[in-house]
Amino acid sequence: MTRHRSAVVFFVAPFGTLFALFYLLPIGYAVAQSLYTVERTGTFGPAREVFGGLVQYQRVFADGPFWASVGRVLLFGVVQVPVMIGLALLLALLLDSGLVKGRRFFRLAFFVPYAIPGVLAAIMWGFLYSPTLSPFTALTRAIAPLDAGLVLWAMANVVTWVYVGYNMLIIYSALLAVPPEIYEAARIDGAGPVRLAWSVKIPLVRPAIVLTAVFSVIGTLQLLAEPQVFRSFSSAVSSTYTPNLTVYATSSIPNFHLAAAFSVVLALATCALSFTVLKVSTR
Amino acid sequence: MKIPRRPLAVAASVAVLVTACSAPDDTADAAACTPGDAQSVTLTYTSWIPGIEEVVDVWNKANPKIQIKVQTGPNGNNGTYQNFFNQLRAGNPPDLGHIEYDALPSFRVQDGLFDLGACANVADARGQFIDWTWDQVSFGEENSAYGIPQDSGPMALFYRKDLFEKNTIAVPATWDEYAAAAEKVRAAGGYITNFSQSDINQFAGLSWQAGAHWFANDGDAWTVRLTDPETTKVAAYWQGLLDRKLVSTVPPWTTEWDHAYNSGSAWTWVSAVWGANSISSGAPDTAGRWAVAPMPQWQAGGAVSGNWGGSSTAVFKGSAHPYEAAQFALWLNTSEEALTLLAQKANLYPATKAGASLPVYAQGVEFYGGQKIYEVFAQAATQVTPGFVWGPTMTSTYATTSDGFKTAVSGGGTLTGALAAAQRSTVDTLKSQSIPVKE
Amino acid sequence: MKGRPAAMTVMGVCTVYFLTPIWWLFVSATKTRADFTTTAPLWFADVALVDNVREVLTYRDGIFVRWMGNSVLYTAGAALIGTLLAAMCGYALAIYRFPGRETIFNVVLGGVLVPATALALPLFLIFSRAGAANTFWAVFLPSLVNPFGVYLARIYAAASVPGELVEAARIDGAGEVRTFFTISARLMLPALVTIFLFQFTAVWNNFLLPLIMLGDERLFPVTLGLYTWNTQVNQVPQLRGLVLVGALLSVVPLVVAFLLLQRFWRNGLGTGSVK
User: Fold this and answer.
1) Chain C residue numbers touching B82 (CB-CB < 8 A)
2) I need a surface site. Which of B275, C72, C141, C268 has the fewest CB within 10 A?
3) Which regions of chain B carry the CATH code 3.40.190.10?
4) Is C247 in contact with A106 (Cβ distance < 8 A)?
């Protein structure tokens, strides 16, 4: 069974070593950090680190703004992920339907936003949402996308704008990989393009859809760059608007132990949620 | 797909790290500050001041034995402070760092600052600095200096001279007059100013002028007083202007905000000396129409100013060459050539008494109709109340106050309510760090 | 056929949605600072693109060019090597039976679900202990690890590399390693392209790790560099224009690369769905 032991070591060891060093070790380190707390005497006394058990986790669970931010990103995810994946799926199906001319152009046009990193995309949209400098001032003045009521969805739009093309490409490529003969049978049965898409194509590319959904969920819980940038031009984005902003703000106090506890809880929540999405959607 | 339950590697690495990560001992003798034996040293210096490399080049050419290597990064609160904290924790901070006054206590609480009080020439230099700036770096302790003051931000009133004249509104000398003028400005279609919801350090400067003391430290414990009567007075005053819609509430430092000034919608700005450049570059179309007057007073005939901003050059604990670092920091912040360059490259206004009479500050400024505006600020610099103390977790205090102010300008809650919330959360943050605090 | 006008309408509306901001960015990058706030946002005023670009490229001794170079090294370098490592590992997990195989696979899969942001701060402290924070390697080495790539590579190798082929190569006397590089890797090429693209974009977008790791501006990737400029607009207002021009310049190489690689990624991206 282990005839090829040296080959296995050769193939697995490089990745395995790096994975242990840069994934497992930091996770262990964060867990260890989260179990400590500091003690000091006097107003400027140096800190001593002492084992604190689950003290930091008590703080995490008692932290109202943190849980409010978790609720906020969940709401964001529940709305934004289906909208984005739905739009990506629609565009992919249209591209694949034979109804569209100039497919090369559209594919590239939809994909270009993805080349813009999140931080820069947020800076750009900040201008586009502006009530005085936007190209659409009539609109931005009327609906005030940066006010408390809408800013979450203003950010959702930025994320959607960046990622639709990318998700569309993944789904579209999956559609291209389907052998054309499969469609023939359906066509002979007289199925129109809509029926064909709904009852043949979508089930076939379901794994690709699940994949994009899971990644989008992970990305949602990790929202950091967009709200960080939006903080500078919207009154409605607080320093604890998303869980990751809370982690960042806590570590800049600096309170490393509490920040580590926040990270651990967030990582566990992310794992649990993406696992659930995976289970539900592959059932 | 399964989630790993208990990978052994994690357990093993935790064990290794728990033993390895206990705080590094204080090996260096904290008090010693003497010239090193080395023939020549190279020191690292992290700063985000624009053009700092050119200033350092001047030093490097003249001092081959003490070479400074500059690193730049984002603004302090946007990343560089975080990096300093991380580096201190990891035991590898740069030798020198640029730290604003309000952040110094945070670094001292983390045991990150070298006390330069023992270094030759530092104690002697004390007299060269404006008293209250020295307070900021010495925390009021005799013979201590946790940084060398670099610049200061005495405050005054920038106003649109042309618009005030055209509408025959007198330039307000008191805050009452300022509120009265606000009504007239609004009637003329403008806003007297833009209330800056997230510049809590501007609000701190306004409170500072009113005589507030946000923090106190008696050696045994901190006291937090974000809701003292003076601060509450200032908050209530601005809340009144907000309620009557006499001020605009555009987020500061955005193009939107530049536009408010450039288009003549905002007529005044109570700001620090470095604000002169913010206006001239953000509102270029208004050249020649601005002027500067002293800050409005709470008492008619008073002469009190506030401070907004200002920073120091600190030497981090763990530097192998604190003496050499201190010599550079002194040169950077007291020599005429360095101060002149800092003024030209980065609009830093010196913290030294002699700084006010540098030739760069003697001329009239064209953008301000040829007014010698720096005379106003030189005056203001001497009128800043000494003894204002910053807390040891200002990032968090600023963040919660600003969250509350943002909500208040959007119509949910009040400025005083925001301060009360910030008071509570600051006390909690201190406690969670085991920093003693009186309630 | 009434479907076509409807389909083309949807495509047209979406094109406007996706390209208007890009058009705005392009137009803005051609404007002088004064024109930026005073002229129509979606149309040209005095075209100063050449001056603006020159200013970005020469500001502070051309630091922007260096950032672009860094980004290419971090992104392309890490994605190339990372893809190779992930492919090797996934291939071994698919082809060979050895004790601990499932454990390794499950641990790696768990890694897919860990948010990268939770790792950044502990990574910094670990690198600092090793004295390697604030170096090229501090960003490059962690970027090499791509657990999702291992997952894809395993699935794809199991589906596309027939065991008989590997066996046949053995009978011909080819070593295991040689078989992988000459035969199996070629069969896995579409999956490799997918893995490469996923990793490329993940590293390209990674903002927190360089922010925490790097103190030296000369090591910054272009995203962090432009973010830094954006935080300094209070002191240096000219930077606001430079950020937009810089953003435009940083997008161009990526778009060109994707155009050139179209042939490859069209075939490759579908592999996520192999199951």
Assistant:
1) 212
2) C72
3) 28-152+309-361, 154-308+371-438
4) no
**Which is more confidently placed, C21 or C165?**
C21
Query: Which domains, from first to last, does chain C contain?
Result: 1-47 (no CATH), 49-273 (1.10.3720.10)
**What does the block give as tokens for C35?**
């024109």
CATH number corresponding to A56-282: 1.10.3720.10
**Of B16-20, B132-136, B150-154, B317-321, the least confident:** B16-20
Place of tokens 């003249």: B62
CATH topology of domain B154-308+371-438: D-Maltodextrin-Binding Protein; domain 2 (3.40.190)
Instruction: Write down the pLDDT at residue A208.
Output: 85
Chain C environment of A165 (Cβ under 8 Å)? 18
Instruction: Give the chain C residue whose CA is nearest to the CA of B74.
Output: C228
Q: What are phi and psi of B438, to 5 degrees?
A: -90, 140
Nearest neighbour of A38 by CB, restricted to B396, B407, B434: B434
Mean pLDDT of chain B: 89
Task: Supply the pLDDT for residue C63.
Answer: 92
Nearest by CB to residue B22, choosing from A49, A126, A234, is: A49
Across residues A165-190, what is the average pLDDT? 83
CA-CA distance, A179 to C270, in Å (whole number)? 13
Up-side HSE of residue C123: CA atoms within 13 Å toward CB?
29
Rounded alpha-carbon distances, angstroms, from residue C206 to A30, C203, C209, C222, C243: 20, 5, 7, 11, 18
Minimum Cα–Cα distance from B285: chain C residue: C34
- Chains in contact with B, where contact means 3 or more Cβ–Cβ distances below 8 Å, are A, C
- Taking CB atoms and an 8 Å limit, are A275 and C113 in contact across chains? yes
Encode pLDDT of C8-18 as tens digits: 999 999 999 99
Residue C186 has pLDDT above 80, yes or no: yes
Query: How far is CA A264 from each of CA A7, A243, C113, rounded to the nearest angstrom?
Result: 36, 11, 12
CB atoms within 10 A of CB B187: 10
What does the domain layout of chain A look like in residue ranges? 5-51, 56-282
Q: Which of B287, A135, B277 is nearest to C37 (CA)?
A: A135
Q: Is B3 on the interface with A (CB under 8 A)?
A: yes
Task: Name chain C contacts of B349, Cβ cutoff 8 Å.
Answer: none
- Per-residue pLDDT band for B194 (boundaries 50, 70, 90) equals very high
In this predicted structure, what is the pLDDT of residue B19?
Answer: 39
Assign a CATH topology to domain B28-152+309-361. Answer: D-Maltodextrin-Binding Protein; domain 2 (3.40.190)
C interface test, pick of A1, A2, A19, A91 with most C CB neighbours within 10 Å = A19
Q: For residues A55-66, give the mean pLDDT.
A: 93
Global pTM? 0.85
Strand order of the β-sheet with B215-217 is: B215-217, B222-224, B437-438
Please indicate if any CB of chain C lies within 8 Å of the CB of A208: yes
pLDDT of residue B2: 34
**Residue A229: pLDDT band by 50, 70, 90 thresholds?**
confident
Of C14, C21, C272, the CB nearest to A124: C21
Average pLDDT over residues B113-129: 91
